[in-house]
Design brief:
6 helices, Probable NADH dehydrogenase [ubiquinone] 1 alpha subcomplex subunit 5, mitochondrial, membrane, electron transport, mitochondrion
Length: 166
């Protein structure tokens, strides 16, 4: 047992490259991930408990943290998580921490209950800042085909009474 504990870190494979341009190997990726995931779980506490964003972040972060704590080898972490290389996971975790800060700043869940969204109906003028995505007219053939198909699909009688054509 003692020998296994000492020899395992010595026998671990060393990663030479990620194979991704600009993404360097992180020799202590497991420790970095554990630190980032713990920090993420701490910072997400600032988001209201009932928000879907917080629930999602907590869920996948706890799962990833658990795997990192259970596995010593970077290859096993990558295999069990199935979300890319540990270096990519580190980038994702850092990005998530940045996003948490921005979400707290933006406060998208802080919309007052009495807030009313502007609804544009029918021919009301559309504000200039709203992009207009209007498709071009459909070819006349489309309408002819639609009419022909509609005539073929006459409604069927479901009452049990026979349909009498005159």
């Amino acid at each position: 047992m003692f020998l296994r504990m000492i020899s395992r870190p010595l026998m671990a494979k060393l990663k030479e490259t990620t194979g991704i341009v600009g993404l360097d190997v992180v020799p202590n990726a497991r420790e970095v991930l554990i630190g980032l995931y713990n920090k993420t779980l701490k910072e997400i506490q600032a988001v209201p408990e009932d928000e879907g964003y917080r629930k999602a972040v907590e869920s996948f972060t706890r799962h990833r943290l658990k795997v990192c704590q259970e596995e010593e080898d970077w290859e096993m972490i990558e295999k069990r998580l199935g979300c890319g290389q540990v270096e990519e996971l580190i980038e994702e975790a850092r990005d998530e921490l940045t996003l948490i800060g921005k979400m707290i700043e933006w406060d998208p869940w802080g919309v007052p209950d009495d807030y009313e969204c502007e609804v544009i109906e029918n021919d009301a003028p559309i504000p200039k800042h709203v992009p207009q995505h209007r498709p071009g007219p459909l070819p006349e053939e489309f309408y002819k085909t639609l009419e022909a198909v509609s005539k073929k699909d006459e409604p069927k009688v479901t009452s049990g009474d026979p349909l009498i054509k005159e």
